[in-house]
Specification:
By secondary structure, the protein is mainly beta. The chain has no helices and 16 strands.
Length: about 150
């Protein structure tokens, strides 16, 4: 917890991981990289500067009455960010992935059974790149019945 009057600067070559709860109240914090996985960050009446971006996976960020500046973009996957009465400025991409959203990719391969599309593979880095998502399509007869992302 960072309380009023505190000024904290965290500089790291990798992201600052938050898996529990981080609360900032009335303080100033400067961070290089924040990675939230299943945790939460609550910012109230504070000034926060983040360089290197914010990544949220299954966690939350709540900002109330604060000023937050982020350079390097924000990525939210299965998490949430709420902002109330605050100023949040972001330089870089803002990616929010929910549901069947597919992450950044530059290659798609398709699999068929007969004339039915049964699979889609999304990759980043071309045909030999890293797989970022798969879709499995299921049919009953000739009717598409489900799409599952993995």
């Amino acid at each position: 917890m960072i309380n009023q009057g505190w000024k904290v600067q965290i500089t790291n070559s990798t992201a600052m991981p938050v898996s529990g709860v981080m609360t900032i109240t009335g303080g100033t914090i400067v961070v290089t990289g924040v990675q939230i996985t299943g945790g939460s960050v609550s910012v109230t009446g504070s000034t926060v500067g983040v360089t290197g971006g914010v990544s949220v996976t299954g966690g939350t960020i709540a900002v109330t009455g604060s000023t937050v500046g982020v350079t390097g973009g924000v990525s939210i996957t299965g998490g949430a960010m709420s902002v109330t009465g605050s100023t949040v400025s972001i330089t870089g991409n803002v990616d929010v992935l929910q549901g069947l959203a597919i992450p950044q990719h530059d290659y798609i391969s398709l699999t068929y059974s007969g004339s039915s599309l049964t699979g889609v593979v999304y990759k980043d880095g071309g045909a030999g790149g890293s797989t970022v998502a798969n879709l499995a399509l299921t049919y009953s007869g000739s009717n598409l019945t489900s799409v599952t992302k993995s």
